[in-house]
User: Fold this.
Amino acid sequence: MATEQSPRRTWSRPTAFYNHYVKWAVYVVITVFLLWSAWNMRISPARAVEGWDAAVGLVQGMVPPEFTTQFKNELLIEGLVESVAMSVVATIVGVILSIPVAFMAAENIAPRPVYWTGRGIITGSRALHELIIAIIAVKAVGIGALAGVIALSYKTIGFFAKLLAEEIEDIDAGQMEAVEATGASRIQTLLFGVVPQVMPRIVGLTIYRWDINIRHSTIVGIVGAGGIGATLLNAFDKYDYDFFLTIIIAIIAVVMLGELISTYVRGRIQ
Amino acid sequence: MTDYRTWERRTPRQRIGRYVLILLGIVAAAISWQLLQINYSYLGTAPVEFMDLINRMYPPNVGYTGEIITPLIETVHIAILGTALAVLLSVPVSLLGAENTTLNRYTFLLGKFIISASRSVNVIIWALVFVIVFGSGALAGTLAVAVRSIGFCSKLIAEAIEEIDPGQVEAITATGANPIEAAIYGIVPQIKPAFIGVATYRWDINVRASTIIGFVGAGGIGVELNTSINIFAWRQVLTILLAILGIVIVSEVVSAYLRRKVR
Amino acid sequence: MLSVTDLQKTYPSGDEALKGVSLDVTGNQTVAMIGPSGAGKSTFIRCVNRLTEPTGGSVELDGLDVTGLSGTELREARRDMGMIFQEYNLIERLTVMENVLSGRLGYVSTWDAFRRKFAGDDIARAYEVLERVGLEDHENNRADELSGGQRQRVGIARAVLQRPKILLVDEPTSSLDPETSRDVMDLLTEIADEDDIPVLINIHEVDLAEEYAERIVGLRDGRKVFEGDPEELDGTARGQIYRGEEIPEGAGPTGKVRAEAGVSGDSTAEEGNIRRT
Ligand SMILES: Nc1ncnc2c1ncn2[C@@H]1O[C@H](COP(=O)(O)OP(=O)(O)OP(=O)(O)O)[C@@H](O)[C@H]1O
Ligand SMILES: [Mg+2]
Assistant:
């Protein structure tokens, strides 16, 4: 060792980027971008102080939440019931529409053009936020639960069909071929060779999606698509903050209940 | 023989369970359908209405593109800053919320409380709250996105922390390193892939979220979209929708690239 | 010199893993600790550098009572004890060089540690040690790209970089094939010689212990039941360690007993192999 040339005394960690200059350039770009973003928020001490005052005011206005007037309680219950009902109907409609889409989007079953159509429908459904779909639906069919059901059903397709299609792609091809070998038609093959294999998954996913739809059904009302969201926005517009908090608490309770039921049922199915 | 017995034992129960489930589903659906009191005349005209809407939307208003560039950039700012803030804050929160790194029972409960409080309120509701506090604008939106994301990120990162191999931390401790060094060398490298995965996954979600918080005045392209819809400027609406689609696709490509980079 | 007196450990679960074990390790001796699974070997080693907190007794390293230390003092004491693990415990996602340099973490500031900034001397030495363990040109490989034997060498390099006063080695060969095991044992005894430090090794393979150790300690049920030269580890001693047999009255080292010892010795070695999972 002593006979070698002077030992190396530096070492630097290899970087995931091409070299250290690129690495630092990336860091600088990210930092500048974040600073630019922050600057765009127009944060100032004055605003922070104002914000603090407003927050204190809000908390004082919200606490305690209001559970007293008969009229508001009815409004609350009505809104929540409508939300839950929307979630149930939208889940069922959405799942029924999803199943054919899922078969279309399963690579191992569908012919190419059909496969791409299926994928396209899924992507289209996933790309836009449920509130955007809801607001458009409201313009198309008017304010109310129908718009909410349409929006949630539409969003259900992207989620459900995608996961179910992946499940179908993983099925045991042998069972399908066995049915095919009996001389069954294409539809019969799907019904007897594929559906039984993915049935447990369909049930599990349906309940999971119902859980998600409950969450969404509580907010689509903000754009007029039915449910408790409209009541929430109303309370917000009228500076009725204690009722605002009541509604939020109620929403959280309903969402958690839904999650509990969904987790329990899915646990039992397996 | 065992096959026969399990078959006999389970099938009737499963079958009853299935019938009960189907029955419950049908009853729930029937009741729900009843409750909604949907006006079927609307449902009947819906396809026509939609086609009409699409006709009014097409072609997109190209001239309008220039006007939405600023709100689009604001949307991206909200998503990036909101995600960055959330990821930053989720470091301490996830350390509190992971059984093996939390200080004591109370800090653990605190961590769990922050996580579930953040997660159980939808981003649009957080946006409403922050609009009350900071007034309309991107700041409210950014905070809403950040606060909603903290719980999500912390939960997943805490799970990753709980799954680390403690042997690596022990080995570093055994060299005489202090606890912070043990965390930097023993914990950080182990959770880094999960961390990047969570951050980019949440980034994808936040890009979509930041397009809608404008509905309640919390900044971004949603403000523009809301106005255009309210004034029935359908061709502008289509322009905005296409722009949103573009942002969503670009952001998904970026996050997929980042995830691949960190293996 | 390491001097352990009456070391005891009772786990919260009630397991009495150590029931008072005393042991001195001096000079540049290689001491092998053998014993059946659950005898308390790992517990003993981990109590020495207090990865596990002993419930009684004392550990002294060069006159310093390690059992009484806490905080910075404990960390400084740990710098003097290099530890090598059965499962290597490398930082899998970091490079070999970072793993080796982590042996210096007790000496660098947290900020420098975060920036991976180590002294030039440390880096030069890390290159030197990597060459010594036969891993030259692997410094930029990630640890999870290496084979088991290579990983254990990184583990050894990390411990050596601490410039420890003693090496604590917990079953270094249990995850390796026989060939590689010998290489690792060769390396460990070489280091003990060259750096003039003692090595305390937990080991399951009795034949390796006999071949490499200058002294053998037998542990059973948390008690020391044997201590002596490798030659003294006859059938009786093995019976005691592995099967808890009483020392038969008047059993002398006659030729016949020795021959039988050879047979039973093989079987105990096998037993050890089976149990080491
Ligand atoms: N963390 C722990 N908590 C409770 N009991 C433990 C713990 N670690 C070890 N023990 C118990 O202490 C006893 C000694 O264990 P130890 O790991 O020291 O044995 P060992 O001789 O190293 O065994 P092996 O050869 O299998 O590695 C065993 O009975 C074991 O069950
Ligand atoms: Mg052990």
